[in-house]
Amino acid sequence: MKQINFKRYGLYLLRWQLSTPILYGVIIVLASTDKITATVIANLIGGLIFFWVDMFIFTSKSLSVQWEVKDVIVCVDCGKEARGYRIVKAKEYDKIRDSNPEFRCEECSKKKLAELRERGIEV
């Protein structure tokens, strides 16, 4: 099961709630037209506005954990040669300028992830 990024999900739900009064306002302004036309125009305006908001929510690197993946590494923990993973940046965790990056196999990476969560780091 894919993990949910609750930060993105929360922002999306907030955005969804903000769209209601905006679209309602457009429908009120267009009250003199028929209901279907007003609804279509309101949805087009909503799409023009919220496309950009949604794109930020779902693609912003500031809202997600940044990973680096290499095809073949030697795991820093178990020594196994495998595909390598490392967290580069998360809230309160920054290894962007790390001079000696530590890559882990998938199994050890999951253990490291659990360790970071136990330390209170949001990943």
Q: Can you walk me through this structure?
A:
The structure is a single chain. This protein has helices at 6-29, 35-59, 106-118, and strands at 66-74, 81-90, 93-94. With 123 residues, the protein is an alpha+beta fold. The chain folds into two domains: 6-62, no CATH class; 65-118, no CATH class. The chain has a three-stranded antiparallel sheet with strand order 1-2-3, with no helix packed on it. The chain is elongated and about 70 Å long.
Task: Furnish the topology, listing elements before pairings.
Elements: H1 6-29, H2 35-59, E1 66-74, E2 81-90, E3 93-94, H3 106-118
Query: What would you call the shape?
Result: elongated
Strand adjacency order, main sheet:
1-2-3
Rg is 22 Å
Calculate the mean pLDDT score and round it: 85
Give the class from helix and strand content and strand pairing.
alpha+beta
Number of domains: 2
Distance between the termini: 16 Å
**Helix run count:** 3
**Regions with pLDDT < 50 over 5+ consecutive residues?**
none
Q: What pattern of helices and strands is seen along the backbone? A: HHEEEH
Strand content: 15-25%
Number of strands: 3
Main β sheet profile? 3 strands, antiparallel
Helix content: 40-55%
Give a brief rundown of this model:
With 123 residues, the chain is an alpha+beta fold.
What descriptors fit this protein?
single chain, 123 residues, alpha+beta, 2 domains, three-stranded antiparallel beta sheet
